[in-house]
Amino acid sequence: MSAGENWSPRSQAARALGWIDQRTGAVTPSIQPSSTFLRDSDNQFRSGYSYARDNNPTYDQAEALLCELEGGAAAMLFASGMAAAGAVFLNLRPGDHVLAPRVMYWGLRKWLMEFATPWGLQVDLVEMGDLAAIAAAVRPGQTRLIWLETPANPLWGISDIAAIAKLAHAAGALVAVDSTVATPVLCQPLNLGADIVMHSATKYLNGHSDMVAGALITARKDDFWQGLADIRHDGGAILGAFEAWLLLRGMRTLYPRVEVACRNALAVAQHFEGHGEVAQVLYPGLPSAPDHALAARQMRGGFGGMLSLRLKGGERHAVAAAAKVKLWSRATSLGGVESLIEHRASIEGPGTPVPADLLRLSCGIEAAEDLISDLETALRSA
Question: 59 catalytic, yes or no?
Fold first, then answer.
């Protein structure tokens, strides 16, 4: 295999680091589906591979590319984004205190409240856009982790990674960032002081809605990182070889896909800001957004492909409008080439902080004018 030197991240992604199969000369990465690997005659594993629950050659290229794109020291694939995120919290100890966002991916928030808290973690949900509130919630010597999600699903608020990392480290805590929506195309949290980056690789990294995966990238290969590796191994939250191959295939087009999604999201946001049927557009790329200045400083090349619309007609109008779309697909998820829409509050259920009048939009790579026209028609007919 070979690797490019001094290539831009965009080229590294497109060429999957330039690794070439030395036996065949294949430019497309191969899949190694074996669950077990041959020992040497003296019972050693000098190939570095022993059993698929430890590692698999198909992981190597995807993990190396993720590490390169995020500027990390190591990367690790998991069976899902939830498995990756959960591993970070399970690497703590009962009694440890953690801070997490009040507005965040609902599945992880639910897991923290229904599993991690009874298991023994002390979890406080705070407004991650309020540095004073974070500082007040930190317990020096007891707070072990601050978990961020930025932009935060589905209200798309921005957290100041650098400022929060400084505050956390002064208190002896780690910072982990769910950067699924930003992707390494738009933000590299490790370069801003974060210790761990998490991706639901199902979303933008894969980008084709045809597999489920998660990933962690670390700033340092330390004892905490080894603990995460042990959790993956012992818990068996591993990714299949075919899924790892699909992830690598998707990451090769990450940059152009994210760039188009960002342009489409900005076009949709600009069109519907001030629209007669729309009470509010939530998108950090709009100058009117409360976090726009921070987003512009922390992100580069765009503000993401996700936005939300709050409708003046309330919940009934939002649900009816989602039912009328033709080009947008009514489905949960984000980051694929197809544009998705959903009434988020009804998905999350009781206790959600999501307003009932909100529609969450994931912009794909269709023509922006078609996406806008389809939403216009749906809003009018609803």
Answer: no
